[in-house]
Design goal:
Mean pLDDT: 80
Radius of gyration: 17 Å
Low-confidence stretches: 1-20
Oligomer: single chain
Helix content: 25-40%
Shape: globular
CATH class: Mainly Beta
Largest sheet: 6 strands, mixed
Distance between the termini: 35 Å
Order of helices and strands: HHEHHEEEHEEH
Length: about 180
């Protein structure tokens, strides 16, 4: 019995995994709506033959996203599909998490992000479509409850570059030092 308890303690606590949404969708307003805007950083999807570019405006929001997010993960696009919703289309990005969470809880993998027409990422997703398969992103996410629904995850995508991951790691360290 003591050996089992010692083994459990030696292994440490289980990794944090995102749980279902607990906050009502009405809380997706103000700062949350700005930080988890269902958008993508400018320059995260480079033109053919080009390289990812730094997005100074969104770089400034990384620390705020780290503090407010349920989690931040590196994820690879494994599928892109379009589906009709009324007289409009919605895109669904299927992503697989790679490694542990960069910050907060790790979302279950694979997971789906819904990209509605009118969201900031819609044009980029529509123009790239299946070309996104295999591309990696840094995904900041926050889940919300919707009555009679599986819930909704709002997000922001950044390039999965050394620059962005360095900023995420610095903000995560700052958050831990401050005891958040």
């Amino acid at each position: 019995m003591v050996a089992v308890a010692a083994l459990a303690l030696a292994c440490g606590p289980p990794a944090k995994v995102a749980k279902g949404p607990a906050r009502p969708i009405t809380e997706w307003a103000g700062d949350d709506a700005d930080l988890f805007d269902d958008g993508i950083d400018v320059g995260s999807i480079p033109p053919a033959g080009g390289t990812e570019q730094v997005d100074d405006v969104n770089d400034l929001k990384i620390t705020a996203r780290i503090y407010a997010a349920d989690g931040v993960v590196t994820a690879k696009v494994i599928g892109v599909s379009s589906e009709p919703v009324g007289d409009r289309n919605r895109y669904r990005l299927e992503l697989a998490v790679e490694g542990e969470a960069l910050a907060g809880a790790r979302i279950e993998s694979p997971f789906t992000l819904k990209v509605e027409q009118g969201s900031p990422a819609y044009g980029a997703i529509r123009s790239q479509d299946a070309q996104l398969i295999g591309r990696k992103f840094t995904v900041y996410y926050k889940s919300y409850a919707i009555e009679d629904s599986e819930g909704l995850t709002h997000f922001h995508l950044s390039a999965n570059s050394a620059h962005v991951v360095g900023l995420v790691n610095a903000a995560t360290t700052k958050k831990k030092v401050e005891g958040h």
